[in-house]
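Collaborator request, handled under Task 6.
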Amino acid sequence: MKNHLLLFAALFVASSFQNEITPIWKNNKLTTVPAWGKEWRVSFEIQPVSKHPKWSNILHFTVGGDCCKSGQRIPGVWFRPGTLKLMVATSLNGNGNANYNSPLVLPLNKFTPVIVQQMQDTKGIYRYTIVINGKTVYNVVNKKPELFKNVNVYAGDPWYTAGDAVLRNFQFTVEPEFTGNIKKGRLLKTIPTWGKEWQLSFQVKPLSKSKAWTNILHMTTGKNSGPPGSRIPAIYMYPNSRRLTVFSQVGTNANLAYTTPKDLPITKYTNVKVEQLMNNQGKYYYKIIINGKLVYNVVQTKPTEFKNVKLYASDPWYAHADVYVRDLHLVGISGQHFYKTL
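Structure tokens returned to the collaborator:
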């Protein structure tokens, strides 16, 4: 995914745990999603067991009915008759049954990862993409993205024979309310005075790894790095991993870094808090707290006040990270909320 990140108040997520199997049988309704937004992601791993002479269904998201009105396949995944090849259909550019027929014969002896998603890119364009076995096989602009209500989710729908396959790590994520898109260079706020005491907190869930540094949040007086005030703080995903790196100015080091020792989980959100506060003895401490656990704690020997601090999500200097972010809170001195989402 991502073509960008999402900052929002309400996120509906249904996901399996690692290696969990989702059974496929006819009319196996898993849930109903109250609001299905313009941006969504469906991912799973599939291992076929046998062929079927007719169309056989694996997954089907629909507002009701099989085909071919808008919203009846958003998306749907089938085995083509007599094959182990996938057909993926969705509502695209006014076509309620826009389909992609994969030429790949899925192997019987191993799982194949599949991602079907519709996301907004950095230019605000909605792109519908299909990724099979780590390769993007379909990528098209959807000029007519739509909102849907009460979307039924089936692992084996009522209209076709159930696909004879093993489905694991099935997960879908949808942003129904669009309270803010995060993308490269997006400025959320300029804060006139950023004091010596502050607190930044958010929840994050990575979706994939990137070969290079990617940014999530960045507070700066104007520069990427170097001079004082360039990173106060800045949050990145470490290259080739799902580890989080937090940079900030501490003492004379304008780019002090802390990186989590392990990858963040992809099946749930991680709570992150970065703060600089004064204790009862008048000392300032810079702290990083992950899931309620203090992981970094150092005395801030040179607490500094900065003017006209910009908050980016994400910054103009790096690609945006492939993550979801929610519940962003930015609190300055005296408890003033400069920016928050609830």
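The cover message to the collaborator said: "The CA atoms of residues 214 and 318 lie 6 Å apart. The first strand starts at residue 5 and ends at 8. Please let us know whether this matches your experimental observations."
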